[in-house]
Amino acid sequence: MTTRKPLLDFGFGTRIGQIRLDHLRYSSENNGKKRRGETVASSAKNKRNQSPERCAAEGILIGGGGETEGIVEVRTMIPERIKVVVLTACMMCLCNADRVVMSVAVVPLAEKLVWSSSFLGVVQSSFLWGYIFSSVIGGALVDRYGGKRVLAWGVALWSLATLLTPWAAAHSTLALLCVRAFFGLAEGVAMPSMTTLLSRWFPTDKRASAVGISMAGFHMGNVVGLLLTPVMLSSIGISGPFILFASLGLLWVSTWSTGVTNNPQDSPFITRSELRLIQAGKPVHPPTNAAKPNPSLRLLLSKMPTWAIILANVTNNWGYFVLLSWMPVYFQTVFNVNLKQAAWFSALPWATMAVSGYFAGSASDFLIRTGHSVTSVRKIMQSIGFMGPGLSLLCLNYAKSPSCAAVFMTIALSLSSFSQAGFLLNMQDIAPQYAGFLHGISNCAGTMAAIVSTIGTGYFVQWLGSFQAFLTVTAFLYFATTVFWNLFATGERVF
């Protein structure tokens, strides 16, 4: 038997991927015969009554054939928790790519259908009309049934809505608004499912890195959507990008449904060492199908740490959706660049945000491992995540070229990703058993803010003829929320 040292504690461990039962039967039938190695005989005897799945989980590969009787080999495979986070990152990438397709496609649609800037904001915000209703309900469902089933249904339904979007746009504006609202309704389960699943699959001091990887996929969805959509619009037409991303979503569902469990202890392929690593340093949660009532809304809202999370979510969504929905339009109207150029300028900030988000998560985990309190780490990360974008948006008002504007937007979005290690993880800190429900409540308020900011930007631009006023309002909202967060946020358990 050969053993190999794990490469990284987070990334790799020793595992086995294949069991050959023919040799086990051969060894059992010829138990009285002479064997060449006592070690091989002992291994075969010990594994004779175990199932193939458990042998795989324990990391043993029995090989043999011909004259060679039994060679035990250990192979390096990817741990189950890494598979979970990679699949989650792919889901988040599709989640955002499906949103961004409309942000780009709406430009030729507006020209074709002669939409005003104010009505363009209404179309852009229609996704949020459904999103706001599914946030609370989706969070409660995730707490009760786990993220696997809820997320699978969510991705399947929003992929269907994505597929129907070109038909709806060709049929009528009302049909388009209804389909986009249904799309948002399905996507509302993505964030609470992601945070709840990762909290169960990763120990506390590695959770921020896991969320960073998943959110990196989320931000890369912007890049993929912004770069592919203009190319496919010009070569295939309106339906091209919608059909592509809808098909990828349905493919993801088939993989997810057979390869993931809600809790690590339910996985038939996880090793004992990996399960011990996951459970170390974090409380053991009850089974996901346990009937546990959510705390009353009145109780949740009676605590200031809850309001700190709600206000942080409001501010984050306000700024995020302004940039997500209006960035291509901003570059096209302010600097008179074409749609493909606007997509490239818009994609760069999201690509750097994916990298900085993982860095923020790693830095957060490092600070916790080196003895800093969870409360202080959450406050540091959230302060960077709001003060940085606020200052950058003020500077954006003075940008004189698209390159300069792209730099300021890149800085703003890169630093805003530090919020992932702030309020987004803080829900698990203060209410680990009810994080999905709390996420739904805060996300509901954040979605309302996103609707106001998305529509409000359109009215401000139509009224004043520029983006400057709304960027200034957004910057000062970042500053005010930073003060509130540092006064009332905590990393200790409250509920």
Comma- or semicolon-separated keywords:
membrane; Growth Hormone, Chain: A; 4 strands; transmembrane; 495 residues; two-stranded antiparallel ribbon; single chain; chloroplast; globular; 2 domains; plastid; disordered N terminus; two-stranded antiparallel sheet; mainly alpha
Topology:
Blueprint: E1 13-15, H1 21-29, H2 38-47, H3 52-58, E2 61-65, E3 68-73, E4 75-77, H4 80-113, H5 117-145, H6 147-171, H7 173-187, H8 190-201, H9 207-235, H10 239-259, H11 272-279, H12 297-301, H13 304-335, H14 339-369, H15 374-396, H16 402-416, H17 423-430, H18 435-464, H19 468-488
Antiparallel strand pairs: 1-4, 2-3
Helix pairs in contact: 4-5, 4-6, 4-8, 4-9, 4-10, 4-13, 5-6, 5-7, 5-8, 5-18, 6-7, 6-8, 6-10, 8-9, 8-18, 9-14, 13-14, 13-16, 13-17, 13-18, 13-19, 14-15, 14-16, 15-16, 15-19, 17-18
Verbal overview:
The protein has 495 residues and is mainly alpha-helical. The strands form two sheets. It has a two-stranded antiparallel sheet. It has helices at 21-29, 38-47, 52-58, 80-113, 117-145, 147-171, 173-187, 190-201, 207-235, 239-259, 272-279, 297-301, 304-335, 339-369, 374-396, 402-416, 423-430, 435-464, 468-488, and strands spanning 13-15, 61-65, 68-73, 75-77. It starts with 12 loop residues before the first strand and ends in a 7-residue tail after the last helix. It contains 19 helices and four strands. The protein has two domains: 13-31 and 40-77, no CATH class; 80-488, MFS general substrate transporter like domains (Growth Hormone, Chain: A). Residues 1-76 and 284-291 have low confidence and may be disordered. A hairpin with a 2-residue loop joins strand 2 (61-65) and strand 3.
